[in-house]
Design a protein that fits this description.
- The chain is an alpha+beta fold and 418 residues long.
- Helices cover 29% and strands 26% of the residues.
- It has helices at residues 7-19, 38-53, 115-131, 153-161, 242-253, 258-263, 268-271, 310-323, 344-357, 401-417, and strands at 57-61, 65-70, 76-82, 100-101, 105-107, 138-144, 167-170, 173-174, 178-181, 183-192, 201-204, 214-219, 222-227, 283-292, 295-304, 327-334, 337-338, 364-366, 378-380, 383-384, 398-400.
- The strands form five sheets. A seven-stranded antiparallel β-sheet has the order 13-12-11-14-15-10-16. Strands 1-2-6-3-7-19 form a six-stranded mixed β-sheet, with helices on both faces.
- A hairpin with a 2-residue loop joins β12 (214-219) and β13.
- It is globular and about 70 Å long.
């Protein structure tokens, strides 16, 4: 039976979800009911309301996450999604917290990362339920609220009391199937400032997993400014780092400063971690820099190869910092994901992708750290098609009508076969 998407109803629900400010770390009051912020809890509840309307079982887990479940069976297929977003930032053509429709597709913060794919997966569940097709497992859409910060308090809360999926996928990355994800480090290197102007200040970047598109400094009463281009922190080569541009100018003025020493440690080579394997290589995104005439600190988003020794990477970073008289703190470490390419999960999803798109591209490994790392036997699968522009975490985040249609077919088939 061919399943169909009620696009008008889907867009109505998506408009409501996009209008909810669920920016991670900046979405309203933090309370006992809303530990991640009011906006994130509101977005989770909005998803659960749709699930209840569809007749599915729902549960809010203390404002950290929620789930929507259908079907019967001892085993469970998990679809892992998130409803928090990064900051909107500047440079938008369209209002970021409105769902703007054009001839080509839709714009808004979260339409592709990840409210749009999350809602589409729910509509796939509804289409299958309405078709009365028999499934051998329950299907549970697990909706997290803390993916973008990397802390994943949401899924940690889920795991405390809830059933783990037998098999799972997360539509929060790219096609084709993602069988491997790099290890993720969040690092802060800092030191006491010396040999800099007495009225010096520097601010650059806001979010650790985004390439900073703006940096500002004040020296001797003069304002220095640099503009760059935002991009996802896992792909720094697709952005233009404003911190690095402005830091180069300041280093030339104060080459003996702590600031100069710190901002020289912004490449894999300088950090002693220039490593790769046969499918992945290291990436370094120096993303948030705060400095004045007393101290300076730089936070990094670092993704290391899927076969690398994370502890050795950390050791080398700490040594590189110490050699400059600085201190390196590792405040988050997520080990790599690897699901064999010949596994049932990877082979099944890869086959579905090829059937629905005609693309025979093999499974891939990526730098992005998705919710797939939270569970065993789970991979990232979609929702970004290879030939579409990369707009996650960028202004004018976009999802095309063509991609929505293809994703609906793919996710429906994935649910049925898994």
């Amino acid at each position: 039976m061919n399943l169909t998407l009620n696009k008008q109803e889907f867009l109505h629900d998506l408009e409501k979800l996009i209008s909810i400010n669920s920016v991670n770390g900046n979405c309203g009051d933090v309370t006992e009911k809303a530990p991640l912020g009011k906006g994130i809890n509101n977005a989770i509840d909005a998803f659960l309301e749709i699930g209840s309307r569809f007749g599915f079982k729902t549960k809010n887990l203390d404002g950290y996450c929620g789930y929507i479940e259908m079907g019967e069976g001892e085993e469970m297929l998990g679809i892992i999604v998130h409803t928090d977003t990064v900051e909107a930032g500047d440079g938008w053509t369209y209002p970021p917290f409105e769902c703007t429709q054009t001839d080509d597709g839709i714009y808004g913060r979260g339409v592709i990362d990840d409210k749009g794919p999350a809602l589409l997966a729910l509509y796939c569940m509804k289409a299958i339920a309405d078709s009365c097709e028999s499934l051998s497992k329950r299907v549970r859409l697990i909706i997290g609220g803390d993916e973008e910060a990397g802390s994943w308090h949401c899924l940690n809360r889920y795991k405390k009391t809830e059933e783990l999926p037998t098999i799972a996928f997360s539509p929060d990355a790219d096609y084709p199937v993602v069988f491997g994800e790099k290890g993720l480090l969040r690092v802060k290197i800092y030191g006491k400032e010396k040999n800099i102007a007495p009225d010096f200040t520097f601010e650059g970047g806001k979010v650790i997993n985004v390439v900073p598109d703006e940096a500002t400094a004040f020296i001797d009463g003069k304002r220095l400014h640099a503009k760059g281009k935002a991009a996802h922190g896992s792909m720094p080569e697709k952005g233009d780092n404003a911190i690095l541009k402005l830091a180069e100018e300041i280093r030339a003025l104060y080459p003996e400063s702590t600031f100069a020493a710190l901002t020289s440690l912004t490449t894999p080579q300088a950090l002693g971690i220039d490593i790769s394997d046969d499918v992945t290589k290291i990436s370094v995104n120096p993303s948030v820099l705060i400095a004045d005439n007393e101290k300076c600190e730089l936070s990094y988003d670092i993704r290391y190869p899927i076969t690398a020794d994370g502890e050795k990477v950390i050791e080398n970073i700490k040594k590189a910092a110490a050699d400059k008289g600085l201190t390196a703190d590792i405040f988050f470490h997520e080990t790599p994901l690897y699901v064999p390419r010949d596994s049932h999960l990877v082979k099944t999803l890869s086959q579905i992708y090829t059937e629905r798109t005609g693309d025979t591209a093999p499974p891939v490994a990526i730098g992005g750290g998705t919710y797939a790392k939270a569970f065993k036997n789970c991979v990232a699968f979609g929702a970004m098609l290879p030939d579409e522009p990369e707009t996650m975490h960028a202004p004018d985040e976009f999802w095309s009508w063509r991609s929505i249609d293809i994703n609906f077919d793919i996710i429906c088939e994935a649910i049925k076969r898994l």
